[in-house]
Amino acid sequence: MEGLEQWKDQLEQLKSQLEPWKNQLEKCLHEAIEYLNQIPPVQLYAAIAVLLISTLLLLSIRLFKRAKSNTIILTGLSGSGKTVLFYQLRDGSVHQGTITSMEPNESTIVLNSDSNKKRKSKPVHIVDIPGHSRLRPKLDEFLPRAAGIVFVVDSLEFLPNCRLASEYLYDILTKASVVKKKIPVLICCNKNDKVTAHTKEFIRKQMEKEIDKLRASRSAISAADISNDFTLGVPEEPFTFSQCRNKVTVAESSGLTGELFCIQSQAQMHAHESDGGEKNLLGSSTEAPAILLSST
User: Fold this and answer.
1) DSSP letters of 51-99?
2) What is the DSSP letter of 198?
3) Is the pTM of the predicted complex or chain greater than 0.85?
4) What number of helices (H) and strands (E) belong to the chain?
C-alpha cells in the first residue's frame, strides 16, 4: 500500500510539472489558429499545395535513387559470341560451344575481379539479347532499365559483317533512351584468341568509317524517323566514338578461352555513388555507372 501511495504522489508531481507545458501548448495552438484565420483562403491553399508538391518531389527523388538499375545488356549480331560470353560470366563455362539464342537469357550474378577485390561485390543482372534481326525489338524492352550495354563484335569474321554491325550499333547509339540516360556502351571485340582476328583498333576505325557513311545517308530521312531522335557526331567532321553523348569504349575478349572482359556490376557503382563515391566511367565523369575491364 505504501508503494502505491508513493506512486500516486509521484504521478501527481509529474502532472503538476507538465501543467505549465500543457497551458503553453494550448496557447501556441490558439495563436496559430488565429493567425491562420487571418490568412486569405487563396494564399492558405497555395501554401498547402506548395508543401504537398515539395513533399511528393522529395519522395520521388528518393524512390528514383533507390530504383537505379544493375542491368547489363549483351547485344550484337547473331554469331558474335554473346551467349558464350553470357555463360562464361554466369558460371565459367562455354555451354557446349556454339549457341544460337531465340529468347533473351537472363541471370543475376556476382562478378569478381582483381579490380574490385577491395570492394564488396554486389549482384549484377546480365541480359543476353538474341542477335537475329527479327528478334532485335526485344532490346527495346530492356533498354529502359539498362545501366550499361555491351555490343559484341566477331573479331574473326568482322569485315563481312562490318556494315551490318555498324548499322545495328548506329541504331543503338541514336536511340533516345540511350542518349538521354547517357548509357555507357562497350564495344566488345570477341574471339580475339584466333590468330587471324582483327585488333580492336582496326575494328574501331572501320566502324567509325561505316557510321560516318550512315550519318550522311540517313540524315535526309532523320526528320521523318520518329524512332531515332538524335544524330551522331559533329557536322562536317569525320565521325569518332568520342563525339557521342554517352561514353563508348572498345575492348577485346574471348568467350571460349575464358579471356574475358570483367564487367563490374552497375549495382556496385550505384552503391558506391550512394556512399559518396565518385561517379565515373573508365576515369570519366558521368551520370551513368561504370563498366570496368580487365583481362584474366
Assistant:
1) HHHHHHHHHHHHHHHHT---EEEEEESTTSSHHHHHHHHHHS--SSS--
2) P
3) no
4) 8, 6
Classify domain 69-274 at the CATH superfamily level. P-loop containing nucleotide triphosphate hydrolases (3.40.50.300)
Per-residue pLDDT tens, the chain, 296 aa: give them.
666 677 777 777 777 777 787 788 888 877 777 776 777 777 767 777 777 787 777 776 656 554 567 889 999 999 888 888 888 888 876 665 555 667 888 888 876 654 455 555 678 889 999 888 888 888 999 998 898 899 999 999 999 999 999 999 999 999 998 999 999 999 999 888 888 999 999 999 999 999 999 988 877 665 555 455 578 888 888 999 999 989 999 988 876 655 554 443 333 443 343 344 434 333 333 333 333 333 33
Would you state the cell numbers that stand for residue 8, as one nine-digit string? 500516486
d(CA 164, CA 173) in angstroms, rounded, equals 14
HEC letters along 114-168: HHHCCCCCCEEEEEECCCCHHHCCHHHHHHHHEEEEEEEEECCCHHHHHHHHHHH
Residue intervals in the chain for CATH 3.40.50.300: 69-274
Distance of alpha carbon 202 from alpha carbon 198, whole angstroms: 6
